[in-house]
Design a protein that fits this description.
Blueprint (H helix, E strand, L loop, with lengths): L11 H12 L2 H13 L3 H29 L3 H8 L6 H33 L8 H12 L3 H19 L2 H28 L5 H8 L8 H14 L6 H6 L8 H30 L9 H11 L4 H35 L3 H21 L14 H28 L2 H9 L9 H24 L1 H5 L2
The structure holds 4-fluoro-L-phenylalanine.
């Protein structure tokens, strides 16, 4: 694709749907609830929301501005906006981050395929929590079956990305998102009315500030970046496909709200059931996969709900992996003139390799550890807790300190049509709040703050 024939997202809904399709995914329904469960509940939720508002929204807006002004992939956009300088490395770092995220994301995406099959063959019925946990453990620590699902899932992702931006991504996102919302609401209603379900809501909405540690704060910030697909050039790449007529700040508000509402609804569907069934809220990555099958077993029409849920979870994962792969593809096509199909095949092979490493690290290779973590946790922690926040920090600094403010205002106001009265506050967040907060949170966790004497 050259600069002039870049395909744009067709309609307004298309832009929001595609960006929301990237944001809404396993991060909301699988990762958010278990991170919240491991980090003490309500207090985590409050810090998460603060991170979304003070860091996530301004950084998403900055990514859109960089992409739409630069009209290129994550690294290319920086090259256009800061020629002759090294800022493009931030984009390159994003391409690398995409790759690492894919390395564990496809494993969980593969699990959703397995659970579609289990739902269709009515496997959840009459099973207690202990049995469901065992079934999950046997499957996820196995060798061949998870790898087959990873491969199937990657083939689907690659095929859609091959079909191109507008056709593939926009169409699939547009009607599936509302459906996902309806199913999660139905699940939430069932979960809240389970006996003892109210304790789950208390855990979620009654913060215990005594539980806040530097680890909790870092996890909440990492989750905000992960869930909103920020700090690694994804929204820069998508921003470059957004038409000049679209109001960027409104798009940011819509995408962020949808993403946050879906994460909170997922938690409302899960924690009441967790407490009602006596599951440990700090269970970890298997939380959703053992809790929700239990809820389905207690629901009228549970068979159908279960199938619908896992199909949609899989599709939500798919609209995110599409965006991750697109970051890599757009970069190699535009910067190195690769054919789309060549880079899609190469990237798919590389991702499959990482996916196999991650999957095996939960089973036969669980003793292979780097920094005390297996590959799965390593890819997860390194991306969400370090690479994405650092990428976000650099994007904030770039747009806050470096980029010409008149051209940013022009981009935001769409030539005077849209409101920009938040501009000063936005720049303040980029210049001071985001860099200081992100640095302190990371340094604090690394223990460097003590070492440096503050
Ligand atoms: N935001 C996605 C989720 O919550 O599942 C994950 C993700 C997608 C992260 C795309 C980063 C990205 F570029």
């Amino acid at each position: 694709m050259t600069i002039n024939d870049r395909i744009n997202f067709g309609s307004k809904l298309g832009v929001v749907a595609a960006a929301a399709g990237s944001a809404v995914g396993l991060g909301n329904i699988w990762r958010f609830p278990y991170e919240l469960g491991q980090n003490g509940g309500g207090a985590f939720l409050i810090i998460y929301l603060l991170c979304v508002i003070l860091l996530g929204m301004p950084i998403m807006l900055s990514e859109f501005i960089i992409g739409r002004t630069g009209q290129a992939n994550a690294a290319g956009s920086f090259k256009k906006l800061a020629p002759g300088q090294k800022w493009w490395i931030v984009g390159l770092m994003g391409v690398f981050t995409s790759f690492l995220i894919m390395g564990f994301y496809v494993v969980v995406s593969g699990w959703t395929l397995e659970y579609i099959v289990q739902a269709v063959s009515n496997q959840f019925i009459n099973k207690d929590t202990a049995t469901l946990s065992r079934v999950f453990a046997d499957f996820s620590t196995g060798t061949l079956r998870p790898i087959i699902w990873i491969t199937v899932f990657m083939i689907i992702t690659a095929t859609i990305v091959l079909a191109g931006v507008q056709k593939g991504i926009e169409r699939s996102s547009k009607f599936l998102m509302p459906l996902l919302l309806i199913i999660i609401i139905a699940l939430g209603i069932r979960a809240v009315t389970l006996p003892g379900g109210i304790d789950g809501l208390r855990f979620l909405f009654k913060p215990d500030f005594g539980k806040i540690t530097s680890e909790v704060v870092l996890s909440a910030m990492g989750q905000a970046f992960f869930s909103l697909s920020l700090g690694m050039g994804c929204m820069i790449t998508y921003g470059s496909y957004i038409s000049k007529k679209t109001n960027l700040s409104k798009t940011v508000v819509q995408v962020t709200m949808l993403d946050t509402v879906i994460a909170i609804l997922a938690a409302i569907a899960i924690f009441p059931a967790v407490f009602s069934l006596g599951i440990n809220p700090a269970q970890g990555p298997e939380l959703v996969f053992i809790t929700l099958p239990n809820v389905f077993a207690h629901m009228p029409g549970g068979y159908v709900w279960a199938i619908l849920f896992f199909v949609l979870l899989c599709v939500a994962a798919l609209t995110s992996t599409i965006s991750l792969l697109e970051v890599i593809v757009a970069y190699f096509v535009e910067e190195y003139k690769f054919h789309r199909i060549t880079i899609i095949l190469l990237a798919t092979a590389g991702i499959l390799f990482l996916g196999v490493l991650s999957s095996l690290s939960l089973g036969v290779w669980k003793d292979v550890q780097i920094f005390g973590m297996g590959f799965f946790s390593l890819f997860d922690s390194l991306t969400s807790k370090i690479l994405m926040p650092v990428g976000g920090l650099l994007i904030a600094v770039f747009t806050g300190w470096k980029l010409n403010k008149d051209s940013m205002l022009e981009e935001l106001s769409g030539g005077g049509q849209f409101k920009t009265n938040f501009f000063k506050f936005y720049i303040f967040l980029l210049r001071f709040v985001a860099p200081v907060a992100i640095s302190l949170i990371i340094l604090n966790q690394l223990g460097l703050s003590q070492w440096l004497g503050f």
